[in-house]
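Appendix B. Worked example

We walk through a single record from start to finish. Start with the input: the chain for Transmembrane 7 superfamily member 3, Bos mutus grunniens, length 570.
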Amino acid sequence: MGLLRLLLIVVLASVTRGACGAEIVGNSSEGLLEFSVGKFRYLELKKPFPEEAILRHISSNVTFVIFQIHSQYQNTTISFSETLLPNASETGTDKGLVSILRPEQSMCTWHLETLDPEPVQNVAIPLSYSESDPIPGGCNLEFDVDIDPNIYLEYNFFETTIKFAPANLGYARGADPPSCDVKMGPDSRWRLQYDVYQYFLPENDLTEEVLLRHLQRMAEVPQVQANAVKVVTLTADDKTSVSFSSLRGQGVIYNVIVRDPFLNTSTAYVPTHTYACSFEAEEGNCSSLGRVSTKVFFTLFALLGLFICFFGHRFWKTELFFIGFIFMGFFFYILITRLTPMKYDVRLIVTAIAGSIGGIFLVAAWWRFGVLTLCMLCVGLVLGFLVASVAFFTPLGNLKIFRVDAVFWVTFSCIAIFIPVVFMGCLRILNILSCGFIGSYSVVLAMDSYLYTSLSYITLNILRRALHVDFRRAFVNVPFQTNDFIVLAVWGMLAVSGITLQIRRERGRPFFPPHPYKLWKRERERRVTNILDPSYHIPPLRERLFSRLAQIEGLFQKEQPAGERTPLLL
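Next comes the structure step. The output line below is what the pipeline stores for this chain.
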């Protein structure tokens, strides 16, 4: 009897038109997964063993049910029938189906399976809605399923983009669905609004258990509104696509709530998640995001920056090398990334070489010409760049007006130039502030190579904006959790300590060292005219070099034997 009952359920489920299983009287058959409305259930799927989920005793005031299932990175397939049809099944990590109920129907079934050779841990839940609630994906014209409540996610190094199908107005059981595009009045689906929400998982936590637990906070409307951050509200006239900055290794959950402001009702789409990386990639996967080349580069950069933070003003030439390195390295990295197909490690090495050349050039320019204003302009512009980056790291960067590149770069440049202009009357203070803030921030970048911190995106977002044209449309929200507070405290402590130490140590000293070339020229003239100076008797450089070469050449000549060499005369 149990086998006959199971066969009857399968046959009736396959007959439905993409809605759900037919109503069956009796207890659940062995092997079925019993679900309750609004209750999460953990389950494990294995490749050769598909499962069937069943929801019984559906209330008569429910008009549609959304069944959703989630996994971390292994794909799961959900369908209305055992036979997988493109318009009646979905495959992925965060997928769901809408079951439109018929009159007198009180039970639904769904078929679950996986093609992954390894067992897949999942969490699933059915959610019920009434006829006044909007139907997510009810006006789908882009994706395969007729009514598609899913959010489709794509990501690359720069941005993460979510897309979803427009919703439709709710309707009673047995009634015809409202037309999607026949009219655009207030009694059509064009009155609906879409709230896009973003939720960050704990930093540096890639565990499956944490993800599945936090996904439960993003499935229902009240929980989404209570736990997530609303990023933007879209109208029916807007494109149902939103972009965010990619945060590699950081778990993020996205969801969309469609609202009917006329009836004051709402429905949640199926939430989706990403880490902006692959768990299965052999190189650069989520478990090993930090490249060795990145760690070496930023560790050396941080050591130099830490020295500049505390001693930069005293060691003026070293600071100029540091500033020249940043200037040349930043612009050269953008140039070679946009114009050449070099691999990342090669680009980093070339950037280090170009940055070193830029640092040497700035030191040489100071040594020869001694133009303090020009050198301090470079220093002030780097500090202005950091200040402007911090400004656009705040919610100011998400304003719609700054999605226009011209407005963004003009505003950014004005902020960067404003800093050296303001401090042009007190160059020593400007220099010490630059040493403190820029040098200490290099430590933050190095810490990000070993321990994730959102503060690295202060400058990384600007670099992405310069490299990727479409990054202008991305929202640049980042999590701010325990690690970030610690790193922020370290950054502030280093900056304040370095600035305070240098101000106290430089009190009563000359503001800046004198022109090196003039000192060298004056010293050379003094040596020529002062015969009492011991350096006066030092041979010229050319004679010293020839003398040293003669000594080295003598080391390779055979030693002449001692004794008489003149032949005896007869």
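Two observations about the output. Confidence is low (pLDDT under 50) at residues 1-19, 21-30. The chain has 13 helices and 18 strands.
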